[in-house]
Amino acid sequence: MTSKKPRLPELPRGYHLRRPSLEDAEAVAALMCACDIEELGEAETDADDVRDDWSQPRFDRDRDTWIVVGEDRTVRAYGWVWDKVPDREMIGDIYVLPGEPTEPLYEVLRSRIEERAEEHIPAACADDEVTLGFFGMVGSKYGAYLAGQGYELARTYFRMLIKLGEDPPAVPSIKGVELRPFRVGLENGAIHRVIQESFSEHYLFAPEPLDEWIGRRTAHPVVDPALWALAWEGGEPVGAILPYPYDAMAWIRELGVRREWRSRGVGRALLLHAFAALHAGGHRTIALGVDAENTTGATRLYESVGMKVVQRHGFHKRILRPGKPVSAGG
After folding, report:
1. How many domains in the chain?
2. Which among 10, 123, 250, 292 is placed 20 to 30 Å from 285, CA to CA?
3. Can you give the C-alpha Rg of the chain in angstroms?
């Protein structure tokens, strides 16, 4: 006799759960902006960001997203889940409009996300660990809710930020190493190799095929690969940086230096090169995210060029099925 599945939590009266359509991207972005303002003090999301999330490899909007609407049909809450590592490592998120009944809406969306995440378990290899994780700002109501639902704080990430003055810092030269703009198409393999290799020891890292990796980094309309740069020693790519010129602030998506070339100033040179390129385009506020337990000295590097920690986000994780972990760094 099979056991009955537990009944999923129900919405409060007057609320309705449905899947978003493509036309809902603007409304979802407006909801996320309201959450940004309450939590961060300013909006950081637009409809292009939402559509970019929905275009991730393997992401299925009809199975991986939910919105909650009120009687007036406005979007009051939104949740999504994505298998960052196919069928093994799921990442989810939940947004609830400020002023709405937070916990009941969290409960409904979390339960759907967990149910969807568990659908991946049969497709994972028998000895693989399967996990589900959420990011929540340290000290926030959302982070406390996740902890109360059995999601352990596995890691803390810093958001670091700098506001540039009228003159960007000078870019240092490194003997034998040349910084050059990335050439789309011609150097896809080189930049992919550098980032994959330099991030291989990081927490939450998993290898990604070239086409999928480059596709995820160039799909968003704001992307300008002309701002990306590679460091070369002879014909060998040794470091790379990927800046993104968002309107409110520019963002360093990735900065990596291969192990053999670390401690020579390559990372610092790439970072200051990106600052100069973004400054030339009118950007003065630049941010990035970094693992607080990063073992490569990244946090010290960012502090050395004037970046400061402005936010702390916790990664809360639950093991859905024990087994061999997928992520490097624990």
Report:
1. 2
2. 292
3. 21
